[in-house]
Amino acid sequence: MEPSRLAVRRIQRTTVASVAIRPAIAAVVSYRHIHELCLRHGEDQLAAVLIPLAVDGTIMELFSS
Q1: Disulfide check for 38: which of 21, 28, 43, 65 has CB 3.0–4.6 Å away?
Q2: Whole-structure pTM value
Q3: By the 8 A CB rule, do 37 and 55 touch?
Q4: Comparing C-alpha atoms, which of 21, 12, 4, 43 is closest to residue 55?
Q5: How far is 50 from 35, CA to CA, in rounded Å?
Q6: Where are the beta strands (DSSP E) in the chain?
Q7: CB 8 within 8 A of CB 21
């Protein structure tokens, strides 16, 4: 018996959502952690905003190649 198109669509949407949501949550948690760490160690506000982007961007670039 073949699954209906509606069932296949629901499975596809659930898969896409779960694959997209987990990395998004990890990115937010990582950014917030590094930002707070920078502020606690005396970095100014601009550096505390940019450093997490540089660190996470470098990691993403490393794993995407």
Answers
A1: 43
A2: 0.73
A3: no
A4: 43
A5: 9
A6: none
A7: no
What's the domain range around 59? 22-64
15, part of any domain: no
Q: What CA–CA distances, in Å, run from 7 to 1, 14, 53, 65?
A: 13, 11, 39, 35
Amino acid letter, residue 49: V
Please check whether residue 58 lies inside any domain of the structure. yes
Residue 2 is classified by DSSP as P
Q: How many domains does the chain have?
A: 1
Is residue 13 domain-resident?
A: no
User: With left for phi above 0 and alpha for psi between -120 and 50, is residue 48 left, alpha or beta?
Assistant: alpha
Q: What is the pLDDT of residue 2?
A: 81
